[in-house]
UniProtKB/TrEMBL annotation:
<protein>
    <recommendedName>
        <fullName>ArsR family transcriptional regulator</fullName>
    </recommendedName>
</protein>
Amino acid sequence: MKAAEDKIAKLCYEHIGGKLGNLLLEQFVAKGWLAKHHATDKNYYITQKGTLEFTKLGIDLSLIPS
């Protein structure tokens, strides 16, 4: 039985989806870790600051395919 305070972290294929995924994306953009070249672009890129900060968190960015 789930506790009322439990929140769902939805897995969508190999990605975090749902509200948690949206909140993470919003924060990564706000902190300057992720950005778009143009506002209309669908995809984001990892900024230099993002590379530094994700690495500090122990995330191996070399595992992301080019």
